[in-house]
Amino acid sequence: MRVLEKATQKMFLGNGNDAAAQAVMHIGFDGEGYYPITPSSEVGEILSKAVAEGKSDISFVVGTSELAAIGICTGMALAGGRVLDVTSAQGLLLKVEEMTSISGLGLPMVLNLSCREVNAPLNIKNGHSDLAATLGFGWLIFMAPNVQAVYDMNILAIKVAEAVGLPAIVAYDGFHTSHANRRIEIFADPTDVTKFVGDKPARRNILDVEQPTTFGPYMNDDVINTKVNLERKMVKAYEMLPALFEEFAALTGRNYNFVETYGDANAESGMFVLNSAAEAAKIVADELIAKGSPVKVVVPYVLRPFPAKEIVDAIGPTKRLVVAERVSQYGAANYMENEIGNALHKAGNCHTELISRVYGIGGLNFRPDEDAYPLFELALNWPNVDAAAKTLEGRFWGAWPGKMDYNPPATLKRLTTEETTWNAGKDKIDLKELSNMPTRIDKQSACPGCGIFANLNLFMRGIDGNVVFLFNTGCGMVVTTGFPQTSFKVPYAHNLFHNASSTATGVVEMYHRFRAKGLIKEEITFIAVSGDGGDDIGMDQLIGAALRNDPFIFLEYDNKGYMNTGGQLCYTGILGQRNSNAYVGPGQRGKQTQHKDIVEILHGTNAPYLFQAAESNPRDMIAKARKAQATVRNGGFAFGKLFSACPLNWGTDPAKGNEIIDKVVKSCIHPLYEIENGITTLTYNPEKVNAKVPVTDALGAMGSMFAHLASPKFADEAAAIQAEVDARWDRLKARAANPVL
Amino acid sequence: MSTYQLPYQDGRGFTNCLLSAIGGDGANMAAKLLFKLAAEELNLDGAYDAKYGSEKKGTPTDVSLRLCTFGNPVRESGPNNRPHILCVFRENLIGSLNLNRGLQANATVIVNSCKTPEAIRDLLQLHSGTIHVLDAAKIALETHSRLNMPMMAMLAHVLQFPETAVLKKIKETWPKALDANVAAYQAAVSESVSMTFAADGKYPLVEPIEVHSPLGYDNMLDGGCIDSLTHSTIGRNNGYARSNPAPTFDREACIDCAKCLTVCADPGAIVWKENKMAGIDLNYCKACMRCEAVCPETKKGKALKDPAKEGATSCAY
Predict the structure, then answer these.
(1) What is the average pLDDT across A158-176?
(2) Does this chain's domain A259-395 share its CATH topology with A433-737?
């Protein structure tokens, strides 16, 4: 074989996401389709920053959803591009239909998966349920137990992916690795990486007009043959990997294999565990061996193709193997437990007993002392262990039963219709009188000065009687319902990311069914709430509810970004706005498009009541709340957009929210108007009171995310925003003046 | 460089530091800078891991910084629960988070506070070690720096990092705010008050036990839902989220215009009784000053005032 000289390495300080981004930049990718989700968002942010700084020329496209993002990747790959995506948890699940298409079409790409628990109730921390879902997707799967391996596996993954024509996942643990800052080694010279990875092998692509190709035909009986080829590619990857590991070790001094056996290879007790927990297990294996208790850790670096032979060899003479998994396959033996069991069976190994444990779900730490030691003890002592360790509950390491004598008293009285009725029969809006309306949402853990609840609570003063809330994922949901407490005094449900509108439709449908049957006496108003991000990913469902004219109110708090995940770009953002994935630099000047106008999009649905309101004009907001409630009581759909301050991501003084929103309204960036059965009415016209201000007055007050747009350097952007805002405002005025429009 | 000695070493070769702060304090940045310094200037290895979650400004957070000699394996991830050095950005976190849990014997504790080291010892129930107290908020204000600068300075000082290396990293990281940050560094080191407490038996060592919710798999509601009447946040104290004093209320100056309630980010904070404003509920108020900003000037002045504007510092609330 070739004798390779070691390529110079240098120190790099960063977390798992940094390491992935660093590898991506060293490899050289053509494109990334992107959508933010914790804890993987940072990879795209780092790349987009490099684009803005002129350090990377990757085509970086932000989609409206995870599905859109990977659809963009599919297109890039069909065009022959070297393509990247990053995701976690439900983000991956939303991509699923594309993921199987990509492997089916034989398109190589890399997906960095910062593993996160998939669950309701929502959890953003580590778990391997997203990874487990991908096991049968026909993707290569590389495992990165630590920050160093994230960098290294990215380099190996793309090489194998392109060589065999399959997409590859690099899986590392959300937070435990993605956010763990470590000192690692990287190639000092990126050309050593590009030399190792090599050029993209030629493959058919859709841009080749000389050799026209049809991708993705319709197939009947022939599909099974594509599966044979997919399986063959896995075999090919399996066959080429040993030489690649060797070549990589010669270049870097860093040794990888399908499986690492750590500790005493002859030990009778051991633990099979994936990713970061294996690192903690290694610490304890060393200590146990030093104390005279031989143990081993078996940790794979590749899950697909599944290295059955290597795992059987690594287990070797071991008699008791704890198979610890950060996921559970409910009602069946666990994922790795099944695969290892099958491998052992086929190899004729009858001496190894597998002891299944489910650990670390939802980000629970896996510490050497508190977790790895007891699990090794289990392997060392099995079957002579506590009876409790053999129960269903005992299998879930780290779960707890709760205190059965815990029976807290009610601290909240349910709100009655009487005490929440302050608007009925009143034309006048008396803010003092309405101050007696009890809050429906109370004492949350939002940032000081958060606009979400200033808006929601003000709006709710115009809503009488019983209310049920349905929230999309976002800050509004996260800060109100940290288990086991809730800030909601009325019934509430959160459904993921984009689903609140459809969920509301289902709830309202049943409400009317049960009410018609006389099963429900109370009158209830249903209110769905979303951030502006939820109306990117959930735009189709929102439009669907509007088209069906489902009788509920949908409120969007628009703070111009994905603020819950770190201030990423949302389509509502202003042209030139600085986002954590749309930086301002020599290579890019912030967001590239004008702000989305969701009310105009919904205008086309002919929904009966659409409006924009703002906390700067409280009586106007209350009036619109009353009309929205009247609309849904009348059987129609109502939508309102509330401009909402985000002191954290805007970088503004929390005290100034109301003052800033006032400027935004007066600049007509967020005009106050309503569309009632197609008739547009301006409910506040700053021109009539001589209060209209240039957009730069508002942007200059909106903090570091926007303020640069008021500086002379961004005069072109400011002029373009002003022109767009004026054009939209002129259209509104024309419509208000002429009901036919 | 080679003369540098880690001040502590646990059985796995690490000095463990835990920074306890609230979101927005800059604890993460402080740990990042010290980790960079340790690796680049002192050729140490180690790790820093922030608390995991969807932290908002004002919610408690922590950062672990672990240091070891280069070559020592760095394997554990997640926050460290047995610190040798505890650095507390907000004194009120001590009690609410039981920060003595897992703290080692002969610990070093840095607290942003105006209290005496003796008072902090009792608050923390420290087994043994040295407590350094400094009014970091005041230092930050006076030097036009940020809270994390004096806190980081003290942490660097107790880690015995060479001053030249610390100042070099500060300069690299914040070239524009160099003078302010250097002034904060020096003020922190010179103005802190320290006292050492022997293992006199006054307080025991406390194991780092995870505190679980009383609700577990046997008694939680199906699907993990929450009963609103018995598990409302209304009984909770949100006051810890204040990084500046809450507004003061002058009943005499109030005209009950309800503007404060209209703009409040958590309107339960404005106590409204019988069509009258009755004051601020400190269990809600995060001191965002939205209410103070809209409170009208009356003949008797503004009813809501921001104490910070009148010169009050962290020690006044």
Answers:
(1) 98
(2) yes
pLDDT less than 70: residues of chain B = 1-2, 52-55, 312-317
Look at residue A610 in the predicted model and tell me its pLDDT: 98
Check: CATH 3.30.450.20 for B15-197?
no
Q: Which residue has the tokens 């000053």?
A: B289
Arch. (CATH architecture) of A433-737: 3-Layer(aba) Sandwich (3.40)
Domain spans, chain B: 15-197, 238-316
Query: What are the chain A neighbours of B245 within 8 Å (beta carbons)?
Result: none
A436 contacts in B (CB within 8 Å)?
272, 275
Q: Do B54 and A124 touch (CB under 8 A)?
A: yes
- Nearest neighbour of B57 by CB, restricted to A11, A410, A648: A648
CATH 1.10.3720.10 corresponds to the domain A259-395: no
The closest CB to that of B265, out of A279, A367, A446, belongs to A446
What count of Cα atoms within 13 Å lies in the side-chain half-sphere of residue A314? 25
- Give long-range contacts, CB 8 A cutoff, 24+ apart: A516-520: none
Token output for B171: 């300069």
Q: Is the dihedral of CA B298, B304, B309, B315 positive or negative?
A: positive
Is the full-model pTM beyond 0.90?
yes
Q: What is the pLDDT of residue B316?
A: 44
- The whole-number average pLDDT for the span A280-300 is 98
Residue B317 pLDDT? 46
Residue of A nearest to B33 (CA): A13
Residue B241 is predicted with a pLDDT of: 83
User: CA of B190 to nearest chain A CA: how many angstroms apart?
Assistant: 31
CATH number given to A9-252: 3.40.50.970
Q: What are phi and psi of A100, to 5 degrees?
A: -75, -30
Read out DSSP for A297-339? EEEESEEES--HHHHHHHHTT-SEEEEEESS--TTS--HHHHH
Q: Tokens 């969920």 belong to which residue?
A: A503
**Those residues with Cβ within 8 angstroms of residue A624's Cβ, 6 or more apart along the chain or in another chain:** A459, A462, A611, A613, A640, A674, A683
**A448 vs B286: CB contact, 8 Å cut-off?**
yes
Please answer yes or no on whether A435 and B272 come within 8 Å at the CB atom.
yes
Architecture of domain B238-316: 2-Layer Sandwich (3.30)
Closest CA to A360 of A394, A324, A321: A324
pLDDT at residue A3 in the model: 58
Half-sphere exposure of A85 (CA within 13 A, CB side): 33
DSSP E strands: which ranges in A516-672? 524-531, 553-558, 584-585, 588-589, 609-613, 638-643
| Residue that wins the pLDDT comparison between A10 and B309 | A10
Q: Is the pLDDT of residue A130 over 80?
A: yes
Q: What mean pLDDT do residues A486-514 have?
A: 97
Helix (H) or strand (E) holding A105: helix A89-105
Q: Which helix (H) or strand (E) holds B17?
A: strand B15-22
Residue A708 has pLDDT above 50, yes or no: yes
Q: What is the pLDDT of residues A413-455, one digit of tens each?
A: 999 999 999 999 999 999 999 999 999 999 999 999 999 999 9
Whether residues B36 and A13 touch (CB distance < 8 A) is answered with yes
At A32 the three-state DSSP class reads strand
Interchain proximity B226–A481, CB inside 8 Å: yes
B chain contacts of residue A485, beta-carbon cutoff 8 Å: 226, 231-233, 236
Mutation site, B169, B244, B290, interface A, largest A CB count within 10 A: B290
**Res A405: pLDDT:** 96
A-chain CB neighbours of B306 within 8 Å are: 655
How many contacts (CB atoms, under 8 Å) link A and B?
Answer: 250
Question: Is B84 in contact with B108 (CB distance < 8 Å)?
Answer: yes
The domain spans of chain A are: 9-252, 259-395, 433-737
